[in-house]
Amino acid sequence: MTYCVGLRLNAGLVMLSDTRTNAGLDNISRFGKMFTWERPGERALCLMTAGNLSITQGVVTALNEACARAEAGEDVESLLTCSTMFRAAQLVGDAMAAQQKRYREQLEETGARAGATLILGGQRKGGRPRLFLIYEAGNFIEATEDTAFFQIGEHKYGKPILDRVITPETPMPQALKAAFVSMDSTLRSNLSVGMPLDLAVLPAGELRFSVRRRMEQDDPEFQKVSGAWSDSLKAAFSSVPEIVL
Amino acid sequence: MTYCVGLRLNAGLVMLSDTRTNAGLDNISRFGKMFTWERPGERALCLMTAGNLSITQGVVTALNEACARAEAGEDVESLLTCSTMFRAAQLVGDAMAAQQKRYREQLEETGARAGATLILGGQRKGGRPRLFLIYEAGNFIEATEDTAFFQIGEHKYGKPILDRVITPETPMPQALKAAFVSMDSTLRSNLSVGMPLDLAVLPAGELRFSVRRRMEQDDPEFQKVSGAWSDSLKAAFSSVPEIVL
């Protein structure tokens, strides 16, 4: 399983993913699910992946190849050269659709699932920070004023705190805290979501990541939030009046 | 969808269910999912149901028919006459297996699902309070010292608070509070789980329900817990230190 969450705030973008993958409960591995592309001062993009790993790796490889070919002078549109974030989401969606077309039928014949979803966030010079949720058909939706975050993978355990806290106006420190609490709740309740975590922060208008960091099990910032949240939850529960029936 | 939770405490049994059913998102109805049988002072049993409504109604009808036939003097084993709670769980499981045998194939041919799960709790004179989770094959498991609760239906949103609070030693008032908070979290996050609620409380050794109550939207006890929990959660989140990266 997987848990990735992307927040689209007025203050910028926050992207947080776990790194655990499993093929059955007895075959657990660690794979990064966060990929970034950056031309500091011009654009920065972050992609997070959930679902069939061979499919999502194929998508990322195709996107990287296009960047390399564009870099080498070929006339190829890539995440680093396309004109808008909307166009970037189309390129990612097209790469997904190509993978699905190539493998879906064979996968399903073997009883495997080809399903995959992606979250793409980023900003380019002249544009605003944008966040997209890309489906396996290659179609996508964009975060709006009404819905300021997207989740992929095991979304249920981590959703309530985001529902209560995250709006476009949420300041960055509070949003980071909410993302960590959301991840902590998911880690506790679903064994197939696991540390370490990958975190990327893209403040609005800066066009470069201010944070791009892997957080290991003993990361002091994450530990601080996780411990304090557990204690606060217990205190919160105690403070609710008892039922008299 | 559905959410039902059953707690097996040293202090007795708590059973709480919602009442919303849906056949698609545009066809939402209200059906009770909690059924009780009681011979005060001798035994009391409570069954909660999730899954295909025609299947679970068929199970309850079969169980009630057996009770009526036993009552009329026929030599039929029923929930009100069987010798142990374990035997009661077998009778419920047999009723489930019979429904599945009768309808499953036709249901699946039409693309519908026959899946259903049940929670059975109760105590008879000379026995202890017992709680069972009954699957669609008619097999079942029993709550133990290690696992003091069962959930059926939409279990994810309401599980974290139970994991943190419920053990066999949890006193009844705190357990009721945890059950309400668990239900409140689920109601907030999944529209297909809805008020009113059905609540049954069976204190250990009393062999009669001390509470068997329908709680409507404006129920003061539930409102009190729901409001206080929301406020306490916000306070808990505020008290977690902010992230500095």
TrEMBL record, chains A, B:
Keywords of the record: Hydrolase, Protease, Proteasome
GO cellular component: proteasome complex
Keyword Nucleus applies: no
A GO BP annotation: proteolysis
GO molecular function: peptidase activity
Positions of transmembrane segments: none
Designated name of the protein: Putative proteasome-type protease
Species this protein is from: Albimonas pacifica
